[in-house]
Design goal:
By secondary structure, this protein is of the alpha/beta class. It has a domain of 138 residues: Vaccinia Virus protein VP39 (Rossmann fold). A hairpin with a 2-residue loop joins strand 10 and strand 11. It is globular and about 45 Å long.
Length: 231
Amino acid sequence: MHIGLVEQLLCPRCGPPYGLILLAQEVRERRVQQGEFGCPKCRGSYPVEAGFGDLRPPPRSPAPSARAAAARVASDPDAALRLAAALGVAQGPGVLLLDDFHASDARALAGIVDDVEVVVAGWGGQGVAGPGLSAFVAGGTIPIRDGAALGVAVGGDRDEAAWSESLRVLADGGRLVISGPSDASREWVRRNGLVQLLDGGGMLVATVPPAGPKPRPAMWRGPGVPSSPSG
């Protein structure tokens, strides 16, 4: 996990304004290999092992086996190129956030887009951390500050709470990519007033309107509490 990502992280329990403090035990090339995040308010601790952060509020269920996680991470350069085009980010600096559905594209995507940190949120990120790549698992709420990501990609099999969280962390002008979109995801995009840029090739791409009231979800409401659209 890149050390620069720390300033964008929130305590999974407390939310803003409470960020996390890093207690690093091993750092290589500005990437935390081993250590622990701590919250100054609730005193919660969140481990980092082999570059992978566990940012779930306790109690935590056991992690899946490394073999099960690795089975979900198979490289497909063509898919990564399509995803990069859909996200529309030519270069950084900044963060691109992917869920488990896109974990297999993370490494190739980091090589395509210059000066970005590709962050995988989910168990699929185990074993992928490296140059241009960070990964963690979280609970029902993404522990990242509002508007911190240049682009976000999620699977169409997720629920409205996950899509709303993705929109919350998306920067103004950024793109939300929903892969394998469902009718429910299309309706959610329409209902939230997003501008649809593409619906084809297995992707639904939308962005926040450039002017006027933004259909942002409500701000952070706590761990495991779904955000609800505002306005």
